[in-house]
Design goal:
- The protein is mostly helical and 172 residues long.
- The protein has nine helices and no strands.
- The chain has one domain.
- It is elongated and about 70 Å long.
- The protein starts with a helix and ends with a helix.
Length: 172
């Protein structure tokens, strides 16, 4: 349905092809596509799982360190792919780890608290990590597109990173 205006608009004489096609060739659209391609590559090769499990292996079974490890992994992944995609990748891993840690330990309450803490940590760190780069969350790209159109100011990936990354580190 996205191609409808370009193809049928031209053939029906409603519009010329160039003005309609320009809306599809916006650089922000290509950044979105690049972010989605990166997310697909991460999922295909289970890199997100490897990063999370490596952090968990290094922090041990301490619940506070597990939460911190998940925050670091989620924040890092969210810098490069969408917050939503990062969260969708990390939640099943967190749930599996909670189930494994407390499978043999008594105390359903502590399992419940760790699960809640991990879900909140993943949600917050995905949002915080997404602020670090332009491709971290779609709102960053929309904002830069608006600033370019309204004020004729280009914000590059590097310029955004210089301000976004330190802010993300402080909030993390």
């Amino acid at each position: 349905s996205d191609d409808f205006p370009v193809t049928f608009g031209f053939f029906l004489g409603v519009s010329k092809i160039a003005p309609v096609a320009e809306a599809y060739i916006n650089p922000i659209i290509f950044l979105f596509i690049g972010g989605f391609m990166l997310a697909l590559a991460l999922e295909k090769w289970n890199l997100h799982r490897r990063i999370a499990l490596t952090i968990i292996a290094s922090v041990g079974a301490n619940s506070q360190l597990i939460v911190m490890g998940f925050m670091i992994a989620t924040g890092f992944l969210s810098m490069w792919i969408s917050n939503t995609a990062t969260t969708l990748m990390m939640v099943p891993i967190a749930l599996a780890i909670v189930a494994q840690i407390y499978q043999h330990l008594p105390g359903k309450e502590s399992e419940n608290l760790l699960g809640k803490a991990l879900m909140l940590a993943i949600a917050y760190s995905a949002s915080i990590g997404g602020m670090a780069t332009l491709v971290g969350t779609p709102t960053n790209l929309i904002f830069t597109g608006y600033v370019k159109e309204a004020y004729a100011v280009d914000i590059s990936f590097d310029q955004w990173f210089v301000y976004g990354f330190p802010l993300s580190l402080m909030l993390m």
